[in-house]
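Per reviewer request, we include the raw input and output of the structure prediction for the construct analysed in the revised manuscript.
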Amino acid sequence: MNNIRITKKFSFEAGHALYGYDGKCKNLHGHSYHLEVTVIGKPITDPNHVKHGMVIDFGDLKRIVKSEIIDVFDHAIMLNKNTPHLELAQDLMKRDHNVILVDYQPSSEMMVIDFAQKIKKQLPEEIKLHSLILHETATSYASWYASDNE
């Protein structure tokens, strides 16, 4: 049986600031992120299986990405906890803002690496994460491919 790639698209809103950056993105700002998640696997061949003919149910993939990424990052502010932004983060949290402190510069590149790790851990063993594409704007995105990281 052939390997098939399945892709599901997601959207979420989030803010971030890039500490030490030499451009406008050093300021707190937000994006309408669009995430494309592609997995690869073989369709189920058992005609008695409720998911016969599927690599993975789109609903199952949606549940994984929603719980690991969307529910966590949507309408949150991401800040690197290893920078002076920690003080800002603590002040925002005291005011009941949804702040996520990460161990990395919250650029699209680093976010897509983080997202890949989170999603891979939740996939069934027979399904592999093939790629992630995280659009920060309509014309700018970061891509993660399993083949580049083997």
